[in-house]
Every structure is written in structure tokens, then in C-alpha cells.
């Protein structure tokens, strides 16, 4: 009998330990969505389902009507929608939501499932991400993205966090996307959604700072590296999620094969150079910084160069950040820069050239001796892509050209996919 009691106690202890490991992870996910929903509510951008108690009902799927109303609130247009309203052709909209849906229809946020039906089912992630991308200025009509495949562009612009469940889309996921959208750039410019809403007096900068504190997002500890060996060591440590290449005056050369895992961010700090001479596969995020100061001898932007037979394969995100200069003077290109010499760049994820306060302050790509092959999405809000060699936009891929792409000399731009926005200029 003693053995049986001990066995039972051992089983109870084992189950206790298992649940102790499982519950915190689930609770953490729930807490993340709840705190962000609360922060959004504090800014007037999110509401619960009860007027008498705080109840966001985050574990329920949103209906299509609810998703549209939640979008309108996330854009700070709740009062405007109720005051202004609008006309719509849908016959399946409940009377209480009529003004919201009319407003959304006239603003181009929804087209419905047919000419006369909005749709009465639940919203999925494709629908809400499409709504949000349209709100940021992107168009599924002109080919920026496909309404039933918005994930790649949504990832690129930063509105699809890793903890969003696209397979089982709930109101908690709406909260996570809506919160992320506050830090997303409006298409074609350098104004973030939060800054726009502050400018429209939806909330104040102080209120936003308080909401950020309430949301309580953790910033991972940053590991600084100044050599290829240090970079390899940092990438081999699964606990490291943020790495800064800080090597002013001495470039970091990638030789052999190297992979940046998913959920890892590598930032090439100002004044540093990152040279790819082996094969680098990026499954995470690479940020290439623009200058914050310029003098007669030195502009401290950062450069990633693919050279000497190097290969860069991007399955994640590459962001060419703009210069953070207070003036609009023309110093030449001083945003985050990619240069492709004797090497190749293959994009299977996203490349985003960020806009600066002046055109030369934005991100820039020079395709000089090796090819750039785009199989996914490239967003050009920054200075330019200058093609001296060859750029191929593959079938099914998208280039969103909001500023300037040019070919020079024998350079070629081959478009087998979609080129949205401006045409490519032959200089």
C-alpha cells in the first residue's frame, strides 16, 4: 500500500509540474493581449462588450461587423463615424452598426463579400489585416497585396506580431494587431500611425507614453558584437534575441555559411559596415541604420555589402532605416544602405526602404555588379533603388515603388510580377 501511495503522489507531483510549466505560457499570452487591449482602451481606441464592467471578451472570434468597428476605433474615428456616418449598399448590416459600416465603405476600408452583402460570419486574420493595410494607405486594388494573402505585407510593415494566431483568429488578435499598427508607418512617408493620431488630437503624446508603459512590452537585452566570431557565438545562443553590430572603422565580414534565426533582430549600428562574402540566410530581422550626424569627413550611416561572391538570402525582414537628422539638407544618400557588388541578393521575405525627412535621408539600395532577385515584397518609401546590374521581380512578387527606382547604363529591371506605384526610370 505504501508503494501505491508513493506512486500516486509521484504522479500528482508530475502533473503539478507539467501544469506549472504550461499555465504560465498561456497566462503570459493572455496577459499580453489583455494589457494591450487595456492600453488601447485608455487611448480611446478599443472598447469592451459591456458598459458596466471591463470585459473585452478576448477569447471570442469577432464578427465581420465587429472587426470593422474595432478597426474604426483603432484609427481613432469612432466619434467621426457616429457623427458623419455614410451610405453603403449592404442589406445584411444591423441597424445599430449602419453608420459605422457606411463610414467604412465610403472610406474604402471594406468592399463586402458581394455588391449587396457585407457578410455575417466571423472575421478572419486576412480580413482584419486587409482592413488595417487599407487604413495605412496600401491598396489591394492596385496590387500592393492580395486581400486573401496579406500576411507578407503585414509582416513587412510591422502589423503582424509573432504572437497573433492567424489560424484561430480571436478578439485578442485584433488587439495585438491594433496595438502594433500604432508604430506602423503610413504608406509613402515617415509618419507613424500614433503620430498621426496625436496630430489629429485623438490622444496626446503623454497619454501615448502612459499607454506604452501600461502595455509593458519587454525589450530584449542587446548583445554587442564587433567581429564575425562574436556574431557567430551570439547567434548560437538561443537566449539571445537582439544583436548589434558595432564595429566602426573595422567591418564585420561574413565568411562561410551563417543563419540568423527567426525572432532574432540584428542591427547594424551607425558608422558600421557589414560585409557578406559567404552565404548569409536571414530568417529574422536585419535593421540597417541611417545617420544621426554628418560632418565634412564622415557620415555615420551603416552599410551592408554583398561582395566577392557572397550570397544573401532573405526569408525574414530587412529594414533600411532613415537618417534621424533634424535638417533636410542634401548630403547625398545617408540612410541605411545595401550595396550589391560581386554577389547576389535573393529576397523571399520583405525589404523595406524607410522614408526620411528629405529624400536622400531615406534607405537606399545600389545594385552594382550582382543581381537582386525579388520573390516576395519590396517597399520603396526611402531614397531609391539604383540598378546598374539587374533587378528581377519574379512572378507573384510585388515591388511597391512610392519614391524612385532607376536603371543606369546597362542596368535592367525585369518585371514578371507586380510593380505598384511609380514606374522605373531609365537614367
Automatic annotation (TrEMBL):
Signal sequence coordinates: 1-27
* Entry keyword set: Signal
Which superkingdom does the taxonomy of this entry point to? Bacteria
Name-wise, this protein is S-layer homology domain-containing protein
Amino acid at each position: 500500500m505504501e508503494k501505491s501511495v508513493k506512486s500516486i503522489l509521484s504522479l500528482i507531483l508530475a502533473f503539478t509540474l507539467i501544469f506549472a510549466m504550461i499555465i504560465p505560457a498561456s497566462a503570459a499570452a493572455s496577459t499580453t493581449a489583455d494589457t494591450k487591449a487595456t492600453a488601447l482602451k485608455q487611448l480611446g481606441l478599443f472598447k469592451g462588450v459591456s458598459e458596466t464592467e471591463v470585459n473585452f471578451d478576448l477569447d471570442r472570434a469577432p464578427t465581420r461587423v465587429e472587426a470593422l468597428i474595432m478597426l474604426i476605433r483603432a484609427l481613432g474615428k469612432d466619434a467621426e463615424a457616429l457623427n458623419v456616418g455614410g451610405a453603403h449598399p449592404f442589406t445584411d448590416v444591423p441597424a445599430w452598426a449602419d453608420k459605422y459600416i457606411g463610414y467604412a465603405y465610403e472610406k474604402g476600408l471594406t468592399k463586402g463579400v458581394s455588391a449587396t452583402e457585407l457578410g455575417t460570419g466571423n472575421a478572419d486574420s486576412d480580413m482584419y489585416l486587409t482592413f488595417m493595410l487599407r487604413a495605412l494607405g496600401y491598396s489591394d486594388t492596385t496590387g500592393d497585396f492580395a486581400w486573401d494573402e496579406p500576411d507578407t505585407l503585414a509582416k513587412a510593415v510591422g502589423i503582424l506580431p509573432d504572437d497573433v494566431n492567424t489560424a484561430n483568429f480571436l478578439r485578442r488578435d485584433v488587439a495585438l494587431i491594433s496595438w502594433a499598427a500604432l508604430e506602423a508607418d503610413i504608406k509613402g512617408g515617415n509618419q507613424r500611425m500614433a503620430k498621426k493620431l496625436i496630430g489629429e488630437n485623438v490622444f496626446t503624446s503623454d497619454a501615448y507614453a502612459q499607454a506604452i508603459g501600461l502595455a509593458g512590452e519587454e525589450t530584449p537585452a542587446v548583445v554587442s558584437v564587433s567581429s564575425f566570431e562574436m556574431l557567430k557565438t551570439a547567434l548560437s545562443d538561443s537566449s539571445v534575441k537582439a544583436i548589434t553590430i558595432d564595429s566602426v572603422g573595422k567591418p564585420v565580414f561574413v565568411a562561410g555559411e551563417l543563419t540568423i534565426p527567426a525572432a532574432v533582430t540584428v542591427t547594424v549600428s551607425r558608422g558600421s559596415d557589414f560585409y557578406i562574402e559567404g552565404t548569409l540566410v536571414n530568417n529574422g530581422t536585419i535593421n540597417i541604420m541611417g545617420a544621426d550626424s554628418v560632418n565634412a569627413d564622415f557620415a555615420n550611416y551603416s552599410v551592408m555589402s554583398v561582395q566577392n561572391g557572397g550570397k544573401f538570402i532573405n526569408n525574414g525582414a530587412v529594414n533600411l532605416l532613415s537618417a534621424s537628422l533634424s535638417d533636410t539638407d542634401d548630403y547625398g544618400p545617408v540612410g541605411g544602405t545595401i550595396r550589391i557588388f560581386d554577389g547576389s541578393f535573393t529576397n523571399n521575405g520583405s525589404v523595406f526602404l524607410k522614408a526620411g525627412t528629405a529624400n536622400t535621408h531615406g534607405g537606399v539600395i545600389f545594385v552594382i555588379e550582382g543581381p537582386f532577385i525579388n520573390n516576395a515584397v519590396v517597399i520603396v518609401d526611402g531614397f531609391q533603388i539604383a540598378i546598374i546590374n539587374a533587378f528581377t521581380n519574379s512572378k507573384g512578387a510585388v515591388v511597391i515603388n512610392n519614391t524612385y527606382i532607376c536603371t543606369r547604363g546597362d542596368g535592367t529591371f525585369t518585371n514578371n510580377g507586380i510593380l505598384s506605384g511609380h514606374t522605373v526610370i531609365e537614367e
